[in-house]
Structures are given as structure tokens and as C-alpha cells.
Amino acid sequence: CWACEKANFRCSVARTPESALECFMDKQHDLVIIDHRHSRHFDAEALCRPDREEASVMPLINAGFNRRFVENSNMMACYNELLQLEHGEVRAQVKLRAGNAIFMALDQSQEAIEITSEDQVIQYVNPAYESIMGYQPGELLGKEIIEVPKSEKNKPDLLETINSCIRKGKEWQGIYYAKKKNGDSVQQNVKITPSNKHKDRRKGSLDVRSTTSRGSDGSSQRRHSSMARIHSMTIEAPITKVINIINAAQESSPMPVAEALDRVLEILRTTELYSPQLGTKDEDPHTNDLVGGLMTDGLRRLSGNEYIFSTKQPHHIPSHLTTPLSLNDIPPRIAQTMENEDSWDFDIFNLEAATMKRPLTFLGLKIFSRFGVCEFLNCPEATLRSWLQVIEANYHSTNSYHNSSHAADVLHATAYFLCKERVKQSLDPIDEVAALIAATVHDVDHPGRTNSFLCNAGSELAILYNDTAVLESHHAALAFQITTRDDKCNIFKNMERNEYRTLRQAIIDMVLATEMTKHFEHVNKFVNSINKPLAAGNGDEESVKSILTSPENRILVKRMLIKCADISNPCRPQELCIEWAGRISEEYFAQTDEEKRQGLPVVMPVFDRNTCSIPKSQISFIDYFITDMFDAWDAFADLPNLMQHLDNNFKYWKGLDERKLHSLRPHPE
């Protein structure tokens, strides 16, 4: 069951022979496994009646079983066994069933179709062919083509031309006169395709002849199939070109190399090219739950229960915030709190307290002013103030973590990274403005629950976004809805159309990059496309400039920047790191509580407020998600202070864990 869940296969469990039969008749499973370990209803060995003295598996095979799997305590062994079964016997059976369906389709086709072997022996003709040519069913099977009468109306060299094309593995298409059984000639529009044109590694070739008969007046009785156009398309995706090159290389490679290339092709054909496969870390429940909760859509754990998480209408600005703030009107106490906002050690919680949980508006005013955002957008300061207030009003202050303080913290980190020399060399002003806006809105209207929860609960948002990047899509869409519905807060109103579209696309891309399912893809692309070429360039100025400023790499820099800003808590000063850890844990605890109340699958079981070890969860998070990402970001942006904080915080959590302190008191609200 665990292996099926991990591989996203549907699995049914039956505990009696009767229920097993009923279940199989209903769903027609591809794979049936009989558990011989603890069965009270039947004995697998007795069922197969093997000789108990015989160690061979032949009695099992003779009884209809085709594989025996000895119990293994390692769950990954079960997973690997299942994958081998799926890629072997199951896929082979699926192909056989598909073959039957293909021949059924050929039988139903109104076009005449003939299939021959490489030795020119007729292996199949469909009923349409037999009807047009006047043969009885099965009469042509097994005959060589030379035994079938030929029409004298064809040009003498036509057959040689056709055979020459076939020998070269090329298709031939044109007019061909065939002789019916009664001796009459019929004009046909024929397409002959050698099967090795589409299967380069198959030995020999089958000729597939598709014909359309014509009447004596030459008019076509049926349009020729458009399949010929589909087969001759030359548009290929880059990954397809790579796979074709490898396929070609295998032809002349020694066996060990060919086998290694088979493994390469198997990897390339997966959809998760950048997501690492869990090894020993998978056995750690904290890491397993974090990865499962943050990097899946939750569908693998769906139950029959449904919980409707309704989408709320966007909030309007509360009445006590209707008077726009000005940068000059910021109270002295708040202004003093923000004096060191350009420092990485800036304390966002002091600002949260000073602003009565409205840090985003005040910090946004100062940072946007420092970066000249109003000037870039050609936007009055009053519009920016109104926009910041309405965005902050749509963050949920009741969330312990995903509230406007988190948004302000991510905005602060984003601004800090934008001031790093390497980042400034890479990004244009429009990129900087996009990054600041994306940071501000990246979690707007966050419900305090994960994507997995929303998918499991059948929420309106999950249905709207097809269980894909649900929250991130909602944050981006709602941000633009809020912004453009009212001129008083529409910071984009005065932008030129094309520039607005470029800015909008950059903001959306950055917000979507915060979704954790693509975490390793973004990090690995950044390392392979930017860090490694920079390291290989030996500091050559032109080479560095071309790497940093290419449009593709600027996108990767922006994605990496907001990702690091979004989950930078372990790199903050220790007291801030501890506070954030307590807050995110409380939010996960609340989700687990609700999942249990609603009868939903528990996405992250280790986040039970009665048993959870916060130090262990932080160690797993740092070890799995943070270390490699910030190593790469530090190599690019030069952030020694952050890496020192990260090292200190990791040691702190390790120390707590070793002393078996399993809880932290949340910071008082």
C-alpha cells in the first residue's frame, strides 16, 4: 500500500476471497498480490499445492503465479519491486491489450490496409481490403506478395522505386494500380510505410500499406487519411531531440554503454527531472512528512471524505485605515523601528508590535520609496499607500505564520538581496520592481493551510486551479484582481501596455516559483545555468556579463531570489529564527487538528502538538531544503552573514534535539 501510494498507483485491499473476487471483477486490476504472511482465509502454498520439499518456484508458476516476493522490512524495497513489475509485466500486458485494440480499429477502418513482414509475406489485411480486392476473409494471409496478381497499368520501374524507398526506410506515397481477384484493375492512392521508420531499433521491417480506391471516373471515393501529415511533422521538443540522439548513439555502442544509455533514457522520460529521489532521508518521519506536505498536491492520500473550504471574497480596507498614510506621516516610534531596515538583522517582530500587526504597509512605504517604485510605475504615492493597505488587509491576521508579518519579512529579504552587487548586475529596474511587488503579494489571502490540505478537502480553490499550484495561483490572481478593480489603488494604471504585460508576467512567475513542488527544479537550474558557468568562466568580464544578463538567466535569478527570501527564516538571527519556527509549527499543528476533526487524511502526522519535536522538524527542513539552496545563493550573491546564522541555528536545533527538548513555547501574541 505504501509503495502504491508513493508511485501514485490506485490500490484496493481485500481481506477475504469473496471480496477479492468482487473487487477484481469490478476494477480489473493490472496486478494482483496475495499476502501469504498472515492469511486466515487461505494458504497460498496450499492453493498452489507445491511439493514442500521442493525449493523451486515452478509449482507457483504452474499454478498461475509469475513472481514471488519475499517479505522485506525496507519499505523502499517494496517500492522498487512495484516499479519493476509496472515497467515489466504490467506494461507488457498493457501493450498486448493495446495491440488488440489497434487491430480492432484496423478492422473497422474503411481504408484498405495490408501489413507484410520483412520477407514480403502478408501478415494482415483488413476487411475493407478484402472487400475492395474481392478476396474471402483470411484468403491472403501467409501468401507472398509476388503470388498476388499485379496490374499491367503500373509503369515498369514503379515497383523498383517503391522497393528502393522501403529499403532506405522511407515512406512512399502515390498512385498505384492493383489487380482485383477477378482480374480488374483499380486505381488506388497508396501510402507504404516501413515500420522501422518509427522504431529505429527494431530489426527488419513491416510494410504498412494504406490504400484508397478510386472509381473508373477517377473520383476519390474517400478522402485520404491525414495521418500521413502527422507522421511527417518535423517539429520536435528539445528533450525529444536529445532522446533521438541517444537512441542513434546506442546503435553503434558496446553493450555496457547501450545499457547505461537505456538507464539515461529512462530518467529523461520521467516528468520529475529535477526532483531528487528520496534515499535514507525518506526513513526519517520528519523529513518524509515535510516533503510529502510541501511537495505534493495531497491527492495520493485522498479519502472518501470531502470538506469544502470556501473561497472568501477579497477584503476591503477597514474603516480605520481609509485615510492614506504618507511616508512623512509615519509616527516617530515606527520610523525609529525601521531605521535599520536595510540590515539583515532587522527585527520584523518589533515592527509588528509597533504597528499593531500592520508592518507590511509601513515597511512597504519605506522600501518602495528607497527603490523608486512610484517613479518607475508613474504612480502617485497616495495610490501606492492605498494599494499597500488593501493588500495587507487581505492577509489573515489570525494565521500564526502566513500573515502580513511574513509578507513584510519576505519583502525585507527581497530588498536586501536586490542590493547585492551580483544581483544588481543581473537585473534591470523592471525586474527589481517585479520582485518587490511579488514579495508583497506572494501569500495574500493565505488560509493558513497547505496545498495538500486544500486538495484533500476538495476546496473551491483546489477545484478552480485543478489541484495544481493552488495557493500560488490564487495569490497571483487575487493580487491583480485587487489592484485593477479600483483606480484608487491601481498602481499599474499609468503604465504603457507592453511594459505592464512584461511586469505582470514577471510578478506571476515569481509568485508561482514559491510553490515547493518545483523547489529542486529551480535550484538545480540555477546551479547548472548560472553558478557552474560563472565558476568555469575564470572571471572573464564579457563572459560574466553574458551569463548574468541573458533573459533566461534573469528569470532564474528572480525565482531563486524570491524562493530564498520566502524561506530564509533559518538564516535569520537566532531569536528571530526561533520565533518563526514556533509560528510555522503552530500553523501546522492547527492544520493537523482540523484534519482530525474533519476526518481528512493527515498530511504531516509528525506535526501533532502533543508529540512533535520542533528541533527535529527544523533540522529536517534545513537539511533537506535550505542548505543546498543557500549554498548556491551564497555562491552567487556573497552572503557570509546569512551562512553564519544558518550554521549557528542548525547547531542550536541539533543541541536541543540531543538534549531531547521536544517543544518550544510559542511567542506570546
UniProtKB/TrEMBL annotation:
<dbReference type="InterPro" id="IPR013767">
    <property type="entry name" value="PAS_fold"/>
</dbReference>
<dbReference type="GO" id="GO:0006198">
    <property type="term" value="P:cAMP catabolic process"/>
</dbReference>
<dbReference type="InterPro" id="IPR002073">
    <property type="entry name" value="PDEase_catalytic_dom"/>
</dbReference>
<feature type="binding site">
    <location>
        <position position="443"/>
    </location>
    <ligand>
        <name>AMP</name>
    </ligand>
</feature>
<dbReference type="InterPro" id="IPR057304">
    <property type="entry name" value="PDE8-like_REC_N"/>
</dbReference>
<feature type="binding site">
    <location>
        <position position="618"/>
    </location>
    <ligand>
        <name>AMP</name>
    </ligand>
</feature>
<feature type="binding site">
    <location>
        <position position="443"/>
    </location>
    <ligand>
        <name>Zn(2+) 1</name>
    </ligand>
</feature>
<dbReference type="InterPro" id="IPR036971">
    <property type="entry name" value="PDEase_catalytic_dom_sf"/>
</dbReference>
<feature type="domain" description="PDEase">
    <location>
        <begin position="326"/>
        <end position="660"/>
    </location>
</feature>
<feature type="binding site">
    <location>
        <position position="566"/>
    </location>
    <ligand>
        <name>Zn(2+) 1</name>
    </ligand>
</feature>
<keyword id="KW-0378">Hydrolase</keyword>
<comment type="similarity">
    <text>Belongs to the cyclic nucleotide phosphodiesterase family. PDE8 subfamily.</text>
</comment>
<dbReference type="GO" id="GO:0004115">
    <property type="term" value="F:3',5'-cyclic-AMP phosphodiesterase activity"/>
</dbReference>
<dbReference type="GO" id="GO:0007165">
    <property type="term" value="P:signal transduction"/>
</dbReference>
<feature type="binding site">
    <location>
        <position position="443"/>
    </location>
    <ligand>
        <name>Zn(2+) 2</name>
    </ligand>
</feature>
<dbReference type="InterPro" id="IPR035965">
    <property type="entry name" value="PAS-like_dom_sf"/>
</dbReference>
<keyword id="KW-0114">cAMP</keyword>
<feature type="binding site">
    <location>
        <position position="442"/>
    </location>
    <ligand>
        <name>Zn(2+) 1</name>
    </ligand>
</feature>
<feature type="binding site">
    <location>
        <position position="406"/>
    </location>
    <ligand>
        <name>Zn(2+) 1</name>
    </ligand>
</feature>
<protein>
    <recommendedName>
        <fullName>Phosphodiesterase</fullName>
        <ecNumber>3.1.4.-</ecNumber>
    </recommendedName>
</protein>
<keyword id="KW-0479">Metal-binding</keyword>
<feature type="binding site">
    <location>
        <position position="566"/>
    </location>
    <ligand>
        <name>AMP</name>
    </ligand>
</feature>
<feature type="domain" description="PAS">
    <location>
        <begin position="98"/>
        <end position="169"/>
    </location>
</feature>
<dbReference type="Pfam" id="PF00233">
    <property type="entry name" value="PDEase_I"/>
</dbReference>
<dbReference type="InterPro" id="IPR023174">
    <property type="entry name" value="PDEase_CS"/>
</dbReference>
<feature type="active site" description="Proton donor">
    <location>
        <position position="402"/>
    </location>
</feature>
<dbReference type="InterPro" id="IPR000014">
    <property type="entry name" value="PAS"/>
</dbReference>
<dbReference type="GO" id="GO:0006355">
    <property type="term" value="P:regulation of DNA-templated transcription"/>
</dbReference>
<dbReference type="InterPro" id="IPR023088">
    <property type="entry name" value="PDEase"/>
</dbReference>
<feature type="compositionally biased region" description="Low complexity">
    <location>
        <begin position="209"/>
        <end position="219"/>
    </location>
</feature>
<dbReference type="InterPro" id="IPR003607">
    <property type="entry name" value="HD/PDEase_dom"/>
</dbReference>
<comment type="pathway">
    <text>Purine metabolism; 3',5'-cyclic AMP degradation; AMP from 3',5'-cyclic AMP: step 1/1.</text>
</comment>
<feature type="region of interest" description="Disordered">
    <location>
        <begin position="186"/>
        <end position="229"/>
    </location>
</feature>
<dbReference type="GO" id="GO:0046872">
    <property type="term" value="F:metal ion binding"/>
</dbReference>
<feature type="binding site">
    <location>
        <begin position="402"/>
        <end position="406"/>
    </location>
    <ligand>
        <name>AMP</name>
    </ligand>
</feature>
<dbReference type="Pfam" id="PF00989">
    <property type="entry name" value="PAS"/>
</dbReference>
<feature type="compositionally biased region" description="Polar residues">
    <location>
        <begin position="186"/>
        <end position="195"/>
    </location>
</feature>
<dbReference type="Pfam" id="PF23198">
    <property type="entry name" value="PDE8A_N"/>
</dbReference>
